Every structure is written in C-alpha cells, then in structure tokens.
TrEMBL record:
Stretches for region Disordered: 92-139
Coiled coil, from the record: 204-252
UniProt-listed GO biological process terms: regulation of DNA strand resection involved in replication fork processing; regulation of double-strand break repair via homologous recombination; regulation of neuron projection development; telomere maintenance
Ranges of compositional bias, category Basic and acidic residues: 95-105
Positions with biased composition (Acidic residues): 122-131
UniProt keywords, alphabetically: Coiled coil, Phosphoprotein
Source species taxonomy: Eukaryota, Metazoa, Chordata, Craniata, Vertebrata
Record bears the keyword Transferase: no
InterPro entries: FBX41/ZN365_Znf-C2H2, GenomicStab_NeuMorph_Reg
Signal peptide location: none
Identification of the protein by name: FBX41/ZN365 C2H2-type zinc finger domain-containing protein
Superkingdom of origin: Eukaryota
Entry-linked Pfam families: zf-C2H2_FBX41 (PF23165)
Keyword Nucleotide-binding: no
Length: 316
C-alpha cells in the first residue's frame, strides 16, 4: 500500500532522473535558482559546488530568485547580521572583496595611464614598484579573504547543517506522528470495514440460504401443483367417464322401465285374456257338463229321435 507522508505545507515529490524514479523530500532548504525545484541541496557548500560546476557563468536572472525558495532559510535565521545591521570586522562578503580588488585595480590602471603620459623612466619604475606592491597587497588581501571566507563557509555550513538536521528531525518526527495517526486511523477504519464486510458476508450467506430454501420450496410447490393438476385432470376424466356411464345407465334404466311398463301392460292384458279364456273355458265346461247330463237323461229319447229327425244343434 502506498503511504503518503504529510508534514505541514511540505510534501514528497517524485523526480525522474536518468529514467529512474527517485523519491526526494522537498524539505531540503537550498535550491538552485537556475534548476528550480529539480535540484535541492542540504548545505551551501554543495549548492556552491553545484553552481561552480553547472553554472560557472554569471547568472543575471538568478538575482531575483531566492536560494531557499518558499521554505525558510536556516542560514539567514542563524546569522544575525543578514538584515544589513552590524557585522563583526572580520566578516567580509565576497562582494566587498570584489569591490576592494576592483578599486585597487582601478587605481593602478589610472596610475599607469598617468605615467604613460609623462614618459620618464624613474616614474615608470616607481609605478611598476607600486603596482607590484599593490599586487602583493591584493594577493595578501585575497588570501586573507579566502581564508576568512573558508572559515565563514565552514561556520555557515556547520550552522546550516545543524539547522537542517534540526528541521529534518522535526519534520521526520511530525511525519512519523502523522503516519502513526494515519496508520491508527487506517487500522481502525480497516477493522470497521472488516467487521462490516463480515456482517455483510453473514447477511449475504443468510440471504443465499433463504433464497435456496425459497427456491426449493418453490420447486416443491411447483411439483405439488403439477401433481395436483394431473390428479385434477384424471379426476375430471373419471367424472366425465362416470357421467357418461351414468347417462348410459339412465338410458338403460329408462329402457328397462319402458320394457317393464310394456311387460306389465302385456301381463295385465294377458291376465285379462287368460281370465277371459278360463271363464270361457269354464262356461264351455259347464255347458258340456249340462249337455252331458242332458244327454245322459235324454239319451235314450234322443237316440230314438235321432234315428228319426237327427241330432239337435250345439250352442257355442
């Protein structure tokens, strides 16, 4: 996980140098006025070496820029005479040394021009001696100034390095504190997120189980509905068959009833006919018995008369 270190208004940035990504801390106090933010240095000595090596010519555009940029300069904070106030007599800047050397050079050149106009040999020798003395004094002065500037540079570099180390330590402490706070906050947020994820996962698993149960119940209900529909269709077919059979049985019952009615009518008519037949037969039997009795009584007379007139007619 990429962590971002925040310390007040300063932050980290990434420079691409020679195709390789290098992380630099923007809290280095000194920056090159020509290179800008791409080149920052820890001390004035390293900045001076960079300027001598990379920018040896005099940069007129760098006068309007600050070495430290927007960040406070620990060198100016450490030196009390930077505001133009009182300075110790042994402290001289490079501009003062340049001004003095220019003044001596200007005086020697002026004396040489004046001596050229006169053209006398002793004066020329005196001028040469004076110029040699001036050169010796200038060399001594420049050597003293170089020694003093070296001592001053060492003191300034020591003060600057101490100030930079203090600032770097404070920045690192602030960064460590901010990182620890961010890590604690991130850990708490991660723990809360983990608990929320666990709760969401448990709820999701519960919902999945409930969904599976609902789907199984739906499938079982659909199977039951299919079975019920099949049973209802079979029962409907059975009911239709029963209705058809009942209709056939009703028609058969009606037919049987009609047949029974016809049989009953035929039976009654047959009974009447049989009764009439029996009555007729009984009447005929009665007539036959009377005739038999009559013939038994009148048979002798009849035989005699039959011989004369013939048998009497029979009544039906």
């Amino acid at each position: 996980m990429q962590q971002r270190f925040d310390s007040g208004a300063s932050g980290s940035f990434l420079l691409q140098r020679n195709g390789v990504g290098v992380a630099f801390v923007a809290d280095l106090p000194f920056r090159c006025p020509r290179c800008g933010e791409h080149e920052r240095f820890l001390s004035l000595a390293s900045l001076r070496a960079h300027l001598d090596h990379r920018h040896s010519y005099r940069d007129t555009g760098a006068a309007g820029f600050s070495i430290t940029g927007k960040l406070p300069d620990p060198l100016t904070a450490a030196i009390p005479w930077t505001d133009g106030g009182w300075r110790p007599p042994y402290v001289r800047s490079l501009s003062d040394s340049r001004d003095g050397s220019d003044h001596h050079r200007y005086g020697s050149a002026r004396r040489r021009t004046q001596s050229v106009g006169v053209g006398t040999q002793p004066e020329e020798e005196e001028d040469e001696v004076k110029t040699e003395e001036d050169k010796i004094r200038e060399d001594d002065l420049t050597s003293e100034q170089n020694l003093m500037s070296a001592d001053l540079n060492e003191q300034i570099s020591g003060l600057a390095s101490a100030a930079v180390q203090r600032r770097l330590a404070s920045v690192l402490r602030a960064a460590d504190d901010s990182v620890e706070r961010q890590l604690a906050q991130l850990s708490s947020e991660l723990a809360q997120t983990d608990t929320e994820l666990l709760c969401q996962r448990a709820q999701r698993q519960l919902l999945n189980r409930e969904r599976q149960e609902v789907m199984e119940r739906k499938r079982s209900l659909s199977r039951q509905v299919d079975v019920a529909v099949a049973v209802i269709a079979a029962l409907r077919e059975q009911i239709n068959a029963s209705e058809n059979q009942l209709e056939r049985q009703e028609r058969a019952v009606v037919t049987i009833q009609k047949f029974l009615e016809a049989a009953a009518r035929q039976e009654t008519s047959g009974k009447v006919r049989i009764q009439n037949f029996i009555e007729n037969l009984l009447s005929r039997i009665d007539v036959a018995e009377r005739l038999l009795e009559y013939y038994q009584v009148v048979l002798p007379d009849w035989r005699r008369r039959a011989a004369v007139i013939g048998p009497p007619p029979i009544k039906c």
